[in-house]
Amino acid sequence: MLRLNPKDENPEIKRLSDLLENFRLQASVRNWSPTSEILENIRNDSRLILKYEWDRVKKGEPVFYKTQFAMIAVFILWLSGLISFLIFKLLGGVVTF
Fold first, then answer.
1. pTM for the full model?
2. pLDDT tens digits, residue range 58-92?
3. CA distance 12 to 23
4. How does DSSP assign 14-78, residue by residue?
5. Segment 46-58 mean pLDDT
6. What is the largest CA-CA distance in the chain?
7. Which of 1, 9, 46, 67 sits at 20 to 30 Å (Cα–Cα) from 56?
8. What whole-number distance in Å separates Cα of residue 76 and Cα of residue 82?
């Protein structure tokens, strides 16, 4: 069974929830004629949702990728400072222009 957030505003999730509920109702009254179409729609919508969620998970949470970007920027600044310091020391502590 899928665990969908009922408060999610995503229209695909809303549609999938409706399809699942419709399938449950049809199965409870043993009306099997529309179920193959419903199952096909459930499969198609599930693929879209899974793709969206997988891409979101791969990308990471917003705080994670913002922190990652900030850490890369800090590392580049540190590395440029280190290189500047080493060049300064190699030149004997004197910088002339």
1. 0.53
2. 887 888 888 989 999 999 999 999 999 888 888 87
3. 16
4. HHHHHHHHHHHHHHHTT--TTHHHHHHHHHHHHHHHHHHHHHHHHH--HHHHHHHHHHHHHHHHH
5. 86
6. 89
7. 1
8. 10
